[in-house]
Design goal:
With 142 residues, the chain is of the alpha/beta class. The chain has three helices and five strands; from the N terminus they run βαβαβαββ. The chain has a five-stranded parallel sheet with strand order 3-2-1-4-5.
Length: 142
């Protein structure tokens, strides 16, 4: 099975140093460690460039670097500014096309409720409903 993990929950400014970010990273690492017969890929957003190398380092020795992918979309996309709506909608399509291109059997989104005050892009079913998607509901405080 090919599992793609959207790890933006460990990238955003509001979550990466808090519980959601720590949990997102820990569950992704645990899945990699405990799924030796499955192919795990990590998807990271290029809108958080300062987080890419630290997250790559967090998977060193656990996951081949070729299984860590960075997708790019125009920003800003945060929901708190209505002027960003068109970029956010485009970003949703770009992200989902990128994920589809990885040919996953299942996608895991570690935090769907990102992107109000930062540039995370999350969506399910904007382009296709053909790939099963699981979402972790960790914390509703944000």
């Amino acid at each position: 099975m090919r599992l793609v993990i959207d790890l933006q929950g460990a990238q955003t400014g509001g979550s990466r140093q808090r519980g959601i970010g720590r949990y997102s990273l820990a569950i992704a690492q645990a899945l990699v460690r405990n799924a030796p017969h499955h192919e795990v890929h990590i998807a990271l957003s290029g809108l958080f460039p300062e987080t890419v190398e630290p997250l790559r380092a967090a998977f060193a020795g656990l996951l081949p670097s070729r299984n860590i992918h960075v997708w790019e979309t125009p920003g800003p996309v945060s929901r708190d500014n209505p002027a960003n709506a068109w970029r956010r909608q485009a970003g949703e399509r770009v992200r989902e096309a990128f994920l589809l291109g990885l040919e996953p059997d299942v996608v895991l989104v570690t935090s769907l409720f990102e992107g109000f005050e930062d540039d995370a892009v999350t969506s399910i079913g904007t382009l296709s409903l053909s790939i099963p998607t699981a979402v972790i509901l960790y914390d509703l405080i944000p």
